[in-house]
Write a structure and sequence with these properties.
The protein is α/β, with parallel strands linked by helices. The protein has 7 helices and 15 strands. A 5-stranded parallel beta sheet has the order 2-1-3-4-5, with helices on both faces. It has a 5-stranded antiparallel beta sheet with strand order 10-9-8-12-11, covered by helices on one side. The protein has a 3-stranded antiparallel beta sheet with strand order 13-14-15, with no helix packed on it.
Amino acid sequence: MTPQNTTSTKLRCLVVDDEPLAAKLISTYVERTPFLELVAEVYTAEDAIAHLRGSDIDLVFLDIHIPRLSGLELARLVPERTRIVFTTAYSDHAVEGFRVNALDYLLKPVSYEEFLEAASRGLRHVAKPETVSVVETRPANREFLLVKSEYRLLRIPLDDILYLEGLKDYVKIFLASDSKPVLSLMSMKAVAEELPQPAFMRVHRSFIVNVDKVRVLERNSVIIGGRCIPVSDSYRPDFMEIIMGNRHD
C-alpha cells in the first residue's frame, strides 16, 4: 500500500544506472509513487554530476557499478542534504555504502515493495530531519540489520530480532518470525557496533538480547523465545538498569 503523504512535500529524484532497463524500472517506480517526482534518468556519472549541480535533488537512486566513476565515489560528491539509495546486483559494498550518507541498499532485481520502503525512509528524513553524518550513517538511524548469510545480503528488521549468539567467528541471529536462525560470518564485537543501544544489550560474552523481547527475568538469566539465556555478573548491573527503566540513553 502506498503511504498517504500528509504534506505537499514531493521528493525530487535522480535515477543513475548505466543499464537502461534497470534505470527505467526505478524511474517507473518513482513515477508510480505520489510523493516522488522524477527529475531525470541518467546513465553516466558525468550526467549525474551535472544534474546534482544544477538541480535541487532530494533523493538519488544510484547504481554502484557505473563506468569511470563508481557509485561509491560519486556518492562522495553528492550534496549533504541529498539522500542516497544504492541499487546494485552485488552485495560486496553494502557496509561501505552505508558510510557515504546512504539511506538504504537495494539488491537487484528491486521489487516495488522494497523500493517504497526506501523511498518512505527518504520522506521521513525530509519531513523530520535527523542528524546524519556525510561520512557515516549511525546504526541507530536504521530500522534493520544488514548481514551476509550464505552468499546473500539480508536486511533483518530490528524488531524481528530476539537475540544473537556468538559462535567463534560466526553469529547466530534468532528471529521472532522464523524458527531457523540466520548464521553470519562476523564477530560479536562487529555486530554489537551495528545494533542500537540500549535497545540491544550484551548480557554475556556469547549473547546479545533485544531488551523489549525479554519476558522472564531470573536471578542469573533471562528467557526469550523459550530459551534460557545466561546473564554474566559483569553485564548484569547495566542490564538491570535498563530492564528496570532507571536509565535512558
